[in-house]
């Protein structure tokens, strides 16, 4: 499946952030990150644009990624606005990817999606608990939820006048499984916590036993919650509920309830 792209013809929150990042990392005095305290990264200092390239083209385990983003979040919180811009700039490839997925099919809301994705990420960068694992995943989920809320609101608008009538086969949803999970959470079919659990354990490298210990439950209980949420998502895919505009289900899946 090709990576979703979107041509940004004007200034949006994300393109403005990219321009600021380019100024921050240009010669003669680019902002430099000390990678030496981060296990798994090169034992050196490097400009932030080089760090971003390293992350885009390299593959790092969750421990390395967590520690990197703890450092960047700490710098953003303690070292001033330049490091806020710098941390956002490092995340921009992922944020643009998320925004493109969310706004696909919602072109008129694309600028708003960009703004909310950035705002959601920035809020999490400033306020998220840096101690628990999967920090990068949690930052991305905050950005996704904020952007998805824009297109979720679109479901309440009037139906188009040229809406076709009659029965048809449901369209299959598109994209990476994380896209389906995000759409299911935005629609209220499962909780954001359940979506994160599935993503972290099915497509990431988190272990059920580790997560269960963090949440104070047993591994079988957490597996049951994951299975329940996965069944809800699978049924929604079969019905075609995760294709087209995101519509609230009117109830919320209780997969993460005690």
Walk me through the structure:
Helices cover about 60% and strands about 0% of the residues. With about 260 residues, the chain is an all-alpha fold. The chain has 2 domains: about 10-155, no CATH class; about 170-258, no CATH class. A two-stranded antiparallel sheet has the order 1-2. α1 runs antiparallel to α4, α4 (about 80-105) crosses α5 (about 110-125) and α4 packs across α6. The longest helix has 23 residues, at about 80-105. The two termini are about 35 Å apart.
List keywords for this structure.
globular, 2 domains, 258 residues, mainly alpha, single chain, two-stranded antiparallel sheet
**Can you tell me the residue ranges where pLDDT is under 50 for at least 5 consecutive residues?**
156-175, 248-258
> Tally of extended strands?
2
Give the strand content. Answer: under 5%
Instruction: Estimate nothing, just give the exact number of structural domains.
Output: 2
Order of strands, widest sheet: 1-2
Main pleated-sheet profile: 2 strands, antiparallel
Number of helices: 10
User: How far apart are the termini?
Assistant: 37 Å
String of helices and strands: HEEHHHHHHHHH
Identify the overall geometry.
Answer: globular
Structural class: mainly alpha
Overall pLDDT? 80
